């Protein structure tokens, strides 16, 4: 008598053995499910459901994934399940208006786009379609048959490899209306349901049954689609059909941008592109780009990136090595000054141009190329600039930073960068004119300090409206009117003081033969023709004297003056001369060796 638990088949229970046999049969027929796609970054694996066929001795059974129909003939012992058709091809169908490529090995065709395409933060109106499976936004090298992921250029390569140039179909088409537009809208909105995309332009390039250059029995089929709505969104779709195995290093799939790393599709070999996806559509990889970069207008050495959820212009591969914080460049000229900072370095440290300002929070930076420039002008807008002086210099000072910034450089509570324009109080200049009585100018340039100009100009009368111009012959005893002025300073803040003025028969300030006109800010008491008309009350001082010559020398004379700058707010700039109130102590007592000179 058999036990109910003793039904054995070749030493094992009947049902488990049948299951093992069934598994072995399915594996032998290749119908066990295998991974098809891996969604990038999600960790999710999608599986193809198997088509199962098993013979039980009485008939055939075909099963699909539960979505097919199952029929059975009563008493026949046969059960049939109708399989679901395989997924549709991811390719876009191109119409009769497509253009075929007939090019040489490694060659490209220049294509004018019907609408600009935004890519890498730039609007392109043409592209270069290469027979070797890529399109570029720069003139490609026809010898680039071996792909290079280090180009640092704007390029899109669905499958960059060495392809046969005269076998298979290579064609492209672009459209602003019609079936391609409808197809793009349908596919993109299906893959990106939150976008609400409406294409205004589509470009499709297709390689179909194109063999590898050195393996004419290995064929490739792939496609790239560019789509844009002319505004906020652009998309790149890469569609793949049959692909062979290609040796590592001889193929490249993905896209690259100028001064940025190449984005490679993460598969081990080219043939895996046909069965993988980042949008759960086997054989399709899709990439979305927005117009955030378009509005930023990143410079050629910058790249649009998202950092901490904010789009901005980050630094590209080519960056300047500067010891200054944020590549700071300071410019000073009289009452004006500016601080120029690297926009990309500020952005990478989390400082937005909108959040930075000077002492006056209404004074924001102005974008000039890839630099953020903060400027003040004491004549127009001081932007909170303070004016100070010490024993040797006049100092204009301001700050650039965020509202919270208190330290010179602070990563806690904000950013604050102090910058100053520093000018020497004492300045002596020389200006030979050689008969032509106008135009002599010198500039004082100080490393890391400011610069300004002092000029000496002769005028025809005491109105100081009409200067002498060109060749001038002056009679002896003619009354001369001289203006000495410092440019680029606010005349309500800075005063120019004539310390001394003198004449020599040669263009040499320390020549032994000299005649003093002004000494210690006052007229020479031995020359009754000298008058100090204005001194130390603004950026221009005036004096006059009667023309003369040096006995025993030529008729030419050279005029020299030594001056200094003074802060008008101190009240100690202008010195009373003998015959007036007693002398007040001058705010600054310094002298220099050079002079401003003029020849008559």
TrEMBL record:
Q: Which UniProt keywords apply?
A: Disulfide bond, Glycoprotein, Signal
Q: What InterPro entries does the database record attribute to this sequence?
A: NIDO_dom, ZP-C, ZP-C_dom, ZP-N, ZP_chr, ZP_dom
Q: Which domain of life is it from?
A: Eukaryota
**Which Gene3D superfamilies does the protein's record reference?**
Zona pellucida, ZP-C domain, Zona pellucida, ZP-N domain
A biological process term (GO) from this entry: cell-matrix adhesion
The record ties this protein, via PROSITE patterns, to:
NIDO, ZP_2
From the Swiss-Prot or TrEMBL record, give the protein name.
Alpha-tectorin isoform X6
What PANTHER family does the database record attribute to this sequence?
ALPHA-TECTORIN-LIKE-RELATED, ENDOGLIN/TGF-BETA RECEPTOR TYPE III
Q: Where is the composition biased (Acidic residues)?
A: 62-76
> Which residue numbers delimit the NIDO domain?
158-292
The segments labelled Disordered in the record are 54-88
- Domain ZP per the UniProt entry, residue ranges: 331-580
Coiled-coil residues are none
As given in the record, the signal peptide range reads 1-33
| Species of origin | Ictalurus punctatus (Channel catfish)
Q: Which SMART domains match?
A: NIDO (SM00539), ZP (SM00241)
Q: Name one Pfam family in it.
A: NIDO
């Amino acid at each position: 008598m058999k036990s109910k638990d003793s039904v054995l088949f070749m030493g094992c229970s009947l049902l488990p053995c049948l299951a093992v046999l069934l598994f072995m049969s399915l594996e032998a027929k290749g119908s066990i499910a295998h991974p098809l796609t891996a969604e990038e970054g999600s960790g999710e694996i999608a599986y193809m459901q198997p088509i199962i066929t098993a013979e039980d001795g009485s008939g055939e059974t075909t099963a699909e994934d539960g979505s097919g129909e199952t029929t059975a003939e009563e008493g026949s012992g046969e059960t049939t399940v109708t399989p679901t058709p395989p997924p549709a091809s991811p390719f876009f169908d191109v119409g009769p208006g497509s253009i075929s490529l007939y090019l040489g090995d490694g060659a490209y065709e220049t294509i004018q786009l019907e609408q600009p395409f935004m890519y890498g933060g730039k609007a392109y109106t043409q592209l270069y379609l290469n027979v070797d499976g890529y399109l570029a936004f720069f003139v490609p090298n026809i010898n680039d048959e071996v792909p290079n992921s280090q180009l640092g250029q704007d390029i899109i390569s669905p499958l960059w490899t060495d392809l046969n140039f005269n076998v298979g179909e290579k064609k492209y088409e672009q459209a602003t209306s019609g079936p391609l537009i409808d197809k793009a809208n349908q596919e993109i909105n299906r893959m990106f349901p939150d976008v609400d995309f409406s294409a205004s332009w589509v470009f499709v390039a297709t390689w179909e049954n194109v063999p590898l250059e050195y393996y004419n029995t290995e064929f490739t089929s792939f496609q790239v689609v560019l789509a844009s709505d002319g505004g906020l969104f652009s998309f790149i779709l890469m569609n793949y059909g049959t692909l062979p195995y290609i040796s590592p290093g001889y193929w490249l799939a993905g896209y690259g941008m100028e001064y940025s790393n190449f984005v490679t599709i993460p598969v081990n070999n080219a043939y895996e592109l046909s069965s993988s996806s980042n949008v759960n559509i086997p054989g399709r990889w899709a990439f979305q780009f927005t117009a955030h970069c378009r509005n930023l207008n990143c410079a050629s050495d910058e790249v649009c990136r998202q950092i901490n959820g904010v789009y901005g212009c980050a630094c590209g591969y080519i960056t300047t090595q500067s010891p200054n914080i944020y590549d700071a460049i300071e410019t000073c000229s009289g009452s004006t000054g500016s601080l120029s900072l690297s926009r990309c370095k500020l952005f990478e440290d989390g400082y937005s141009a909108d959040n930075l300002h000077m002492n006056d929070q209404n004074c924001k930076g102005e974008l000039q190329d890839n630099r953020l420039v903060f400027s003040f002008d004491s004549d127009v807008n001081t932007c909170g600039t303070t004016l100070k002086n010490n024993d040797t210099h006049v100092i204009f000072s301001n700050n650039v930073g965020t509202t919270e910034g208190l330290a010179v450089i602070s990563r806690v509570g904000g950013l604050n960068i102090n910058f100053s324009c520093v000018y020497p109080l004492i300045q002596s200049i020389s200006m030979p004119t050689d008969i032509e009585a106008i135009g002599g100018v010198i500039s004082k340039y100080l490393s890391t300090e400011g610069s300004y100009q002092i000029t000496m100009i002769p005028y025809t009368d005491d109105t100081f409206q009409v200067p002498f111009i060109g060749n001038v012959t002056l009679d002896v005893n003619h009354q001369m009117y001289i203006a000495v002025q410092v440019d680029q300073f606010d005349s309500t803040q800075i005063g120019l003081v004539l310390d001394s003025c003198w004449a020599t028969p040669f263009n040499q300030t320390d020549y032994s033969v000299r005649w003093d006109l002004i000494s210690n800010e006052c007229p020479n008491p031995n020359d009754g023709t000298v008058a100090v008309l204005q001194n130390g009350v603004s950026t221009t001082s005036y004096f006059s004297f009667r023309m003369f010559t040096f006995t025993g020398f030529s008729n030419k004379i050279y005029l020299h003056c030594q001056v200094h700058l003074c802060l008008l707010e101190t009240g100690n700039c202008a010195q009373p001369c003998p015959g007036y109130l007693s002398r007040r102590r001058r705010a600054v007592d310094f002298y220099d060796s050079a002079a401003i000179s003029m020849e008559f």
